[in-house]
Amino acid sequence: MKNFRLFLQAGHAPTLWAALTYFTFSFAIWVINGSMAPFISEALHLSPTQKGLMLSIPIFAGALLRFPLGLLAQYIGRKNATLVEMGGIAIAMSYGYFFVETFNDILAMGVLLGVAGASFGVAMSLGSGTFPPRYKGLAMGIVGAGNVGTAFAALLAPLLAQKYGWQTVYGFAALSVAIPAAVMVVFAKEPPDLSPHARLRDHLSCLYEKDGWAFSLIYVVTFGGFLGLASFLPSYFYDQFGVSKVQAGQLTMLAAFLGAALRVVGGWLSDHWGGVNTLTTVLGVTAVTLALCGLAEHSLTVTMLLFMVCFSALGAGNGALFQLVPLRWPSTTAVAGSMIGEIGALGGGLIPNAMGFSKQYAGTYMWGFFGFASIAVLMLLVLRTMQIRWTRTWAEKGGRARAVAAA
Question: What is the pTM of this model?
Fold first, then answer.
């Protein structure tokens, strides 16, 4: 506890908590269609592939909008950029409340929800910007725990949709944006560490290297898996096991909460055990649990236990990967992390589509689970191959930080 107090005193704690509030709210909005998918698909009579498309568009749009929002933040400041984005969220939610009635409207709404998904880089930079280098990892871990917004959306959106109608939930979301906006205005301050304007080439620089692609593809499994599954699970529980729409949200909330909470634990574990060791375990556990989920599609209890383990592993993997990023790119951590995060989020959009195709054309979700498990195994092989060079150049054995910097 004393160490945590020292950590808070080292930076501007109100800005950290404001960034966490903003990121949690944005994440909840980003996946709101997934949380209400059973209501929307029933009202609009959607096929499995249509549901997959509906769930994937917000993920793709959010990933693609991260760079424009980050670029805007460099010119007007990160705090102002968050306020602009929250204004965009309010407009998007108002559109959903007043105009969304058809499947095409839902697809357009998905693009607008991408505004909320663009928050990652700005939230991380704002929350950690006032802290010295030795504390930035913990600060980013705390802000990253805003992934718990998926759990809040899965819990609250179905309850509100059942009582007031799913379009009305957009209206509630439009009004609720006032809370994180007020917190940002009152408590946050612009950090002094804003770097010179980064060019597009700077943001893409890590992808000119094999390591950049390795990190990005591993993040497709950990973060993309967390995001894609969190969007897909309400529909899966409702369609596969016949639970109520509200119960489907509650089950998703439990799994998503574990994934968000374990992100911080994954970062801490990686500091002590090594990011490579942690990711090795994460990818192995993810592959096994996903394959077993495909085989346990007739048992809700077994499936739920497997998802809880899987989400815990994915959350820990997100923290572990971002323990390694500043070790590999110490002078360009922000831009490398931004591009890796963008590609990881794009990968999340593949999961709902793959599950929809598997159900519609094979009559079962099993092949979708097997496909994602296979990708996890492939990334495990990539990790174990690449780590041989990593631990000879920029990391200690297992992926820990080097005690003495190389000359």
Answer: 0.91
